[in-house]
């Protein structure tokens, strides 16, 4: 599974392209490739470098970024100053995972990239996914849009307990006992964290042979 996602920025404004490249480079788990400034150079770079994700501007000198979307077989987001509904709808219809209107705060892109990482992690976790897994992966970008909400004290304590486990999986009961809440409360918060991709869940088999869910922070 890919753990370091390679991102290509396609923008004909040299300064903007470098700025967006630097935004990407600051996000853990992502590598920013040298940006390109046209549709043709993007096609060559995609063929040679095989990026995981392409960030495409609509206004390119040799073709529309919307047309480029239909020519490539790679995950893409649109980063454009175009605000009209037709551009946004066409971008979505042609497969854009997200549409960011320029100029935007760097954190907006960072949140989207982190959502993309969770999306890919879920889809790459198995070669035989069920419907629930597909739906969970699809919700990652929606989860990313609300991820800046303040975390509750209980949620922070649960995350702290998992962090102190140093990668070892812990059950809801173990987490509950450590932070002093009921098992039901810990289970409720853990389920939310699993849903937004912050926490991973697996099955642990105990002495009785009955499996129980165990949790760890997602990497």
Automatic annotation (TrEMBL):
Gene3D superfamilies, per database record: 3.40.50.2300, Winged helix-like DNA-binding domain superfamily/Winged helix DNA-binding domain
Presence of the UniProt keyword Transcription regulation in the record: yes
Stretches assigned to the Response regulatory domain: 6-117
Cited PROSITE patterns: RESPONSE_REGULATORY
Sequence positions bearing 4-aspartylphosphate: 57
GO CC annotations, alphabetized: cytoplasm
Annotated Pfam families: HTH_IclR (PF09339), Response_reg (PF00072)
Keywords in alphabetical order: Activator, Cytoplasm, DNA-binding, Phosphoprotein, Transcription, Transcription regulation, Two-component regulatory system
Primary location class: cytoplasm
Subcellular location: Cytoplasm
Entry keyword annotation includes Cytoplasm: yes
Transmembrane segments: none
Alphabetized GO MF terms: DNA binding; DNA-binding transcription factor activity; phosphorelay response regulator activity
PANTHER family linked to this entry: TRANSCRIPTIONAL REGULATORY PROTEIN DCUR-RELATED (PTHR45526:SF1), TRANSCRIPTIONAL REGULATORY PROTEIN DPIA (PTHR45526)
Record protein name field: Transcriptional regulatory protein
